[in-house]
Structure formats: C-alpha cells, structure tokens
Design brief:
The complex is a heterodimer. Chain A is mostly helical. Helix content of chain A is 74%, strand content 0%. Chain B has one domain: Cytochrome c oxidase, subunit III, four-helix bundle (Four Helix Bundle (Hemerythrin (Met), subunit A)). The mean pLDDT of chain B is 94. The chains are: A mainly alpha, B mainly alpha. At the A-B interface, helix 7 and helix 8 of A face helix 1 and helix 5 of B.
C-alpha cells in the first residue's frame, strides 16, 4: 500500500460484503417463495423481500465502487485522498440511510409521512430523508475525490471513473420526481436505472477493469487507455438511446420500438470489447502477477458480463421478441447474469486485488477465493439456464397459448426448485469468499509463479 | 511483439472512426428494418412514398455533396498552408449544410400541413426517424465544421471532414431507399 488513505477502502469493502450477504439471504428467501408461495407471506410479503434483494444489491455495488475509487485514486493521482474524515462521514451517512430503508420497509413505520414514510412506489422506493442523505453522501464523495484528482496526476482511468461517478450521482436526482402518472413514473425510473447500468456504471466498470489490467498484466498505460476510450465511446453511443428498449409497452410513443431495438442491439459491442480487452491484455502482458484470483475474477467479470448483459440482453431486446417475452423469467435470467457478471464480479475482482495489499499479506495465492469464484459463477450460470428454460416455456404457454399466469407457474415449478438449489450454491460460494477475504493470514500454496507444463 | 496495429494507419483520429462506424451501423440497421417492414406492405409503402417531395430531396443531395466537396477541399487548402481559403471553404460547407436543413424544414412543414405524422403509416415512422436522425447529424455537422474552421489544425479539419462525409454517405443511402425505390 503506497498511500495510507487507501485504507479507507477497507471500511467500504467490509460494509459492502455485509450487505452482499443480506442480499443473497434475501435472494434465497425470494427464491423459496417461488416454490412455497405462502412462505413468510404474512410476515414479509414478496414485494418487500424482492425490494430488499434488489436494493441491497444496488447499495453494496455502489459502496464497492466508492471503495474502489478510494483505493485506486490515490495511486493514479499520486497523492493522498483529500479528506479521510469526509470519506468516513460519507460511509456513515450511507449506512444510516440503508438501515433506515430496511427498517422502514420491514415495519412500515410512518406510513404516509412525506419525509419519513414509504413513497408507495415499486422501484426507487426510499423514504425522502434517505434520498436526501444519499445526495449529501454523493456530494461529499464527489467533492473528496474530485479535489484529490484535481490536485494530483490526471489519468484516463481517473477521468473516466470520475465522469461515470458524477453522471451517476446526477442521474439519481430523477428519483426525487414521483409523478402521479404510472407511465411517467416508469419513464423516469429508467433514467436512473438504465442510464446507470447501461451507461454510467459501464464507465466505472471499464475504468476499474482498465486499472486491474494495468496492474495485473503490466501492459503499457497507453495501450490500456486507447481501449478504454473506445469502450466508453461505444457504451455511451449505444446505451443512452438504448434506454428505448424499456419504452416499448409503458405508454410511450411507438417510435421508441425502433430506436430501442436498434440502439440497444449495439449495446453488446462495449461488452464484447471489454471481454476482448481483458483477454488481449492478458495475452500481451509480460507480468506474471501472483494474485491469480484477482485475474480470475477480472476475466470472469468481462466474460460473464458479455454473456449476461450482452448475449442474454440481446436475446429479448428486439421489440418483436420482447412483445412475447416481456416480464417473463427470461428477464429474470438476464438480470441475474448481467448484474453478477458485470458488477458483482467487478467488485469482487477489485476486493480480491486490493485486500491483500491493504492487509499487508501480499503475495498470496488465494486458492480458496478461486474456489469461491467457481462456486458462485457455476451457481449463477446454472441459475441463468434454469430461468431461461423456465422463461421459454412460460413465454410459449402464457403468451402464445394464452394460458393463465398461475397455471403456467405451476407447470414450471421444477425450474424454480432448481433455481433455489443453484441459489444455495451461490450462497455457499459467498460464505467461502468472505472467509477467504477476511480470515486467513497466510495461505501460500506455492511461492513460485505458475509455470506451464512441459 | 510490436504494439503497432492497423488502427495506427487510419487517417485522422481513431475515435472519429469509432463514431463513424457506430453511426453507419445504426443507419444501416434502420434501413434494413425499413426494407424488412416494407416487404409486409409494398403497396402501402409505395402509396406513402408518393406523398414525398422528391425534387426537394434531389436538390438536397446536390447541396450536401457540394458541401462535402468543400470540406474535403478545405483540408487540402489547409495542408497547403492557405488558412484563409480553408476557413472560407469550411464556412461555405457549413452554410450549405444550413441550406439542406432549410429545405428539409420546408419538406417537414409540408408534411405536417397535409396532416401526415410519424404514426400515419409505418413508412412515415421510418421516414421521420431516419431523415430526422440524419437532419440532427447535419445540424451537429454544421456546428462541427464551424468549430474546426475556428480551431483549424489539419488534424481537426480532417476529423470534421470525416464526420461530414459520413453525413453525406448516409444521405446518399437514405435518399434512394426512402424517396426513390419502387
């Protein structure tokens, strides 16, 4: 660790991993409701559980991004973080807000209160005071990292990272607008969610991936930067108007069907480029970095993001296809692999790279961590397949044959059981991962760099 | 192993080519979609096409290609160190771009006057989407040409001219397919 303020990242990573466990437990519960629909129905209804599952995902990923920024910006800018105190204050605000959200969801306190209560929305559902807190925390963060970068060395990686994080924070402001018209509500919701995951987050992803490639493969910065700019250009070009693929059936004008179909089809390109980038850098790289686990997560991230976000996204993005598949388990399959590949793996890659450095136990083989990668990724890919099969059958029975929703659900129960099983495997993988990141002090299987068999 | 690649041999900046290829993919996909939907209703598409103002579009083709020639000429002048003339050529190219937009506005106003909107027929959905997107690019191109006339390094002019030729190229593909193809 070159700069002592990089240590801030530890606190962010720890909270992120804690929320990750909560997210996966939420996922297991929701997955179990699918096979036993009355499970917990009086205590915590399905919609609340799902809200916990998706929102804790978003929050822990963001905390991971913040931590990653605090870790890599000092090294890139070649100076300490402007104010560590502000960084911890930001984390405290976010933790308080998260707890506030969870308590408000679970016990529905202050029902109907404009500031303290739920807003009654399906998504972007936080009490107003939490939203305000998120904005304050974001402002603190942007001030802190921007000051650091402005006074230090400016690199393409920090520029793109900051651009992504600034736009991300600005787009969140749409969460404050809560129109009475449900179609408008959905429209602005996508300004936040789509323009995050298929726009600004991709900038964050590309820059963190570029940083990891720079460190792990030893390829020249100049080469990495050229790729970075091309990827970012492709992501923004396709992603912004690609928002149209959410506007097919929500009451927006019909021309969105063509704008959405054409632009979102191109969204596969940046994800393909990121995968190509990661592998080309590894092939070209001359450095044999001992942290093989971080490399595994990085390559896994680029690959699974290409399949989850790129291929599974394209699968149902054309409006002619989406007319039949909209809102079926096909969507769930895509959502799971896309978030896992693109953003979960990315966060774990930077955790896996940074934690041995932050905790002074480099070099370090992290075999257990790699086992966790295969458990989690295997489970997630299996889940994606089961949901894809479930969705295909559901689409045919429900949308083509016209059978009733619940009758169809009964017929695809076998897939929900298998999905629950794969969820258990993912959960075990997460526990192994957290143990591998947090507990062992020394774990060196071989102190020699890996050598190819002769 | 050397780190040089074929991309280093491209004239102008790599990023402008990324943009150009992306634009061609979008307009190409749009034209392919147009032609695919046309198969489902050839008679309806032909009838709708007859409502278009072909002479105006033909005139616009001449305007845009002349403008493209001026932009290309500007780069050559700038490389021969004739900065004043190069700037004049770029401003001329931008003005012709404005002429294109004026003719286009007259065309759109005419359509609106006849009560034709984007949802009158699938033909017009594509007509407005494709020519509208293209017109937005013409507008962006005009701004870009004026910008590179101001910041007139050969590298900038090359990037501006490359973008402007892409706008040209897209138009000469849109014009026959939308206005003329029977």
């Amino acid at each position: 660790m070159k700069y002592k303020t990089q240590k801030i990242a530890m606190a962010y990573f720890a909270v992120a991993l804690g929320l990750f466990v909560i997210q996966i437990i939420g996922g297991l519960l929701v997955g179990f409701v699918y096979v036993a629909p009355n499970f917990l129905s009086d205590l915590v209804p399905f919609n609340i559980l799902r809200m916990l599952h998706t929102n804790s995902l978003i929050v822990w990923l963001l905390l991971g991004f913040f931590g990653a920024a605090y870790f890599l910006i000092p090294e890139e800018a070649e100076r300490e973080i402007h104010s560590p105190k502000l960084a911890y204050l930001q984390l405290a605000i976010l933790v308080l807000g998260t707890l506030g959200v969870v308590v408000t969801y679970l016990f529905n306190l202050f029902e109907g209160h404009w500031l303290l209560g739920k807003e009654g929305r399906e998504f972007l559902e936080q009490p107003k005071w939490v939203k305000a807190g998120i904005v304050v925390a974001a402002l603190i963060f942007l001030y802190n990292v921007s000051m650091t970068v402005l006074q230090g060395r400016k690199t393409a990686i920090t520029n793109i990272l900051l651009l992504g994080l600034w736009l991300l924070a600005l787009l969140f402001l749409f969460a404050f607008y809560n129109p009475a018209n449900l179609a408008l509500d959905k429209m602005y919701w996508w300004y936040v969610v789509h323009l995050w995951v298929e726009g600004t987050w991709e900038l964050v992803m590309a820059s963190i991936l570029a940083y990891l490639m720079l460190k792990l493969t030893g390829v020249d910065r100049e080469v990495v930067e050229k790729w970075l700019y091309v990827i970012v250009a492709a992501a923004l070009f396709s992603g912004i108007l690609g928002t149209g693929h959410h506007y097919y059936w929500i009451g927006t004008p019909g021309y969105w069907q063509w704008i959405g179909s054409i632009f979102s089809s191109l969204e596969v390109i940046p994800f393909f480029a990121m995968m190509a980038f990661a592998f080309v850098m590894v092939w070209k790289g001359r450095r044999d970095h001992p942290n093989k686990a971080a490399l595994l997560w990085s390559l896994g991230c680029a690959t699974l993001a290409f399949f989850g976000a790129g291929v599974w996204g394209f699968l149902h993005t054309l409006h002619g296809v989406n007319y039949y598949t909209h809102g079926t388990q096909i969507t769930a399959a895509h959502g799971h692999l896309a978030f896992y590949g693109a953003y979960v793996c990315l966060n774990i890659a930077i955790f896996t790279y940074a934690l041995p450095i932050l905790r002074n136990r480099d070099p370090y083989n992290q075999v257990l961590n790699m086992a966790a990668f295969w458990l989690m990724s295997g489970g997630m890919v299996f889940m994606t397949f089961t949901l894809t099969f479930a969705g295909t059958i559901q689409t045919h029975l429900q949308r083509v044959m016209g059978e009733y929703y619940m009758d169809v659900q009964d017929q695809i129960a076998i897939f929900y059981w298998m999905r629950f099983g794969s969820g258990v495997v993912v959960f075990i993988g997460v526990l192994v991962l957290i143990y591998a990141l947090a507990v062992p002090r020394r774990e060196i299987i071989s102190d020699r760099p890996t050598v190819a068999a002769e | 192993m050397s780190d040089s690649s074929v991309f280093d041999e491209l004239p102008g900046d790599l990023m402008i080519w990324v943009l150009i290829v992306s634009e061609l993919l979008v307009f190409g996909a749009g034209l392919a979609a147009f032609l695919s939907v046309r198969i489902t209703d050839p008679a309806g598409f032909a009838a709708a096409q007859d409502a278009l103002y072909r002479t105006g579009a033909g005139l616009n083709t001449v305007v845009l290609i002349t403008s493209g020639a001026l932009a290309a000429w500007a780069l050559r002048l700038r490389e021969d160190a004739q900065r004043g003339l190069a700037r004049l050529a770029l401003v001329g190219a931008a003005l012709l771009g404005l002429v294109f937009l004026i003719v286009k506005s007259i065309e759109y106003a005419g359509k609106a006057g006849e009560g034709i909107a984007w949802d009158t027929h699938p033909f017009f959905t594509f007509y407005y989407l494709l020519t509208g997107f293209h017109a937005a690019h013409v507008l962006a191109g005009v701004v870009l040409l004026l910008l590179v006339a101001w910041q007139d390094t050969p590298r900038n002019i090359e990037a501006g001219a490359a973008f402007w030729h892409m706008v040209d190229l897209v138009w000469v593909l849109l014009f026959p397919v939308i206005y003329l193809l029977r």
